Each structure stands twice: as C-alpha cells, then as structure tokens.
Amino acid sequence: MTLAPDRPGRFGLRDRLGRRSADGSTPAAVYGAVRPVIVFRDVEMTYPGGKVALRDVDLTIREGEFVFLVGPSGAGKSTLLRLLIRDEVATNGQVLVDGVDLARLRRREVPRVRRRIGTIFQDFKLLPSRPVWDNVAFALEVTGAPRKTIAPAVDRVLALVGLTAQARQQPAQLSGGEQQRTAIARALVHDPRLIIADEPTGNLDPLISWEIIQLLLRINELGVTVIMATHDAEVVTALRRRVVALEDGRVVRDELGAAYHRED
C-alpha cells in the first residue's frame, strides 16, 4: 500500500464545519458531508489463547467529532484504541484511519500513519530527564522534522496548553495537571488530525480533571477529532457529547448528546 503525502494540520476546521449544536454534535446538514476519520467494519479481535476482546464492531467517527468511549474494565476500550495506532492488527474486519486500511500497511509505513494521530495516556509517559520544551520537541525530532520548524511548533503548542512559563522546568517540578498538559502539547505538536486519549484524567483530582477536559474541548473546537476512553461518569454526563459504549467487546450503545449510563 502506498500512502498519500501527509496533510497539513486541520486547526481552523471549525470555520468550515460551521456552528455545532447544543449537544456538541455536528449539525445534520453538514455532518453528512464531513469525511470519516475512523471506520471499523465488522471488526473482531481475538488474542492468542482465544480471548475475544472485540466482536462485530461497526463504528464511524467523522472529522471534528468529540467521542467518549465508555464501558466497564475489560469491555474492549483499550484494544479498540490499540488497533487505531496499529499496536494490534484486527483478527477479522477492517480498521481504517483517514482512509488507510491499517492491516495492509507495510512496517515502514506505520510511523507515517501514527504521525497523523496524537496519543495521550493516563500516566503521561514524559521523559523524566528532559525539560518540558524538550519533551515536546522530542516528538518532532524522532520523525526527522526540519530543525528550523521545531522551535516555532513547540512554542505554539506550549502557548496553546498554557505552559509557556514552564518550558524549562523538569517534569518532577510540575503538578499532575501540568504534566498532562505537557503530554497533550507533545501529542499536538505534529498537527494530528486525530487525538486518542486513554483515561487522560485517571490520575488527576476532579478540579484538574475538568481543566484537562476543557483543554481537550478547545482542541476539538480547533478542528481536531477527539476520541476519549474514560470511566468518569460525571464528565461524560455533564458534557453530553457522543457516547460509544462497549460491553464484552461489542458496541451496545452509540448516542449523540448522551449521558454515561443509558437513560431509558
């Protein structure tokens, strides 16, 4: 498979999409014209030993959406996210990211697809011996970005996440919220079309958790698609975005403007 050249970042996409509705969804008149970023078609994932993590998953997430992925531990959320970054390959079915069938990628093509995706984890995964600025720059250095482009890109995302003043501090000098904002800046620095956040507030207290969620919402408003796995029922219910619920590896609910739990 031959990949198309990387596209530039989609910051500013919101202007093209127009206003969002009160529940955070894209207006129906525009939604149909917006291209899919993520597509799962009849996806099954069975691990060695026979454990089935995902079954018959059909899911489409379009450009500019903010989607909460919910469900109990062991429901398949982490497996679904690992398929998106090609840490795993589906046993059956298709997983497409930005139109690319991940199962058909050559090994050397995987890094390019991953550069279109920003990943944020619960445990931050910062380099402890490097200051904030260097942690963010590292994401560009490892991809061979031209040196002249690195400094302005890093400065831009640090300003976006509110860490310009902490640029030369070590991770150990930061609060938990500041460490997570550093991780978000690192995920954003290569202008991804998609952010995958796996329990990004799991290690934070409620007040700081809301700050991180507000930052992710702001990033989404700039045009970046966000899919966030979470157990935080309060956040999901308060925000009323699209909710995709998994149980025993199956999608059991997919609703716009939904609460964490089904409301019948």
Describe this structure in words.
This protein is α/β, with parallel strands linked by helices and 264 residues long. Helix content is 31%, strand content 23%. The chain has 9 helices and 10 strands. Strands 6-7-8-3-9-10 form a 6-stranded mixed beta sheet, sandwiched between helices. A hairpin with a 2-residue loop joins strand 4 and strand 5. Helix 5 crosses helix 6, helix 5 (132-141) packs parallel to helix 7 (176-188) and helix 7 runs parallel beside helix 8.
- Distance N to C terminus: 46 Å
**Fraction in helix:** 25-40%
> For the report, how would you describe the main beta sheet?
6 strands, mixed
Supply Rg.
Answer: 18 Å
> What's the β-strand tally?
10
Give the rounded overall mean pLDDT.
87
Quick structural overview:
This protein has 264 residues and is α/β, with parallel strands linked by helices.
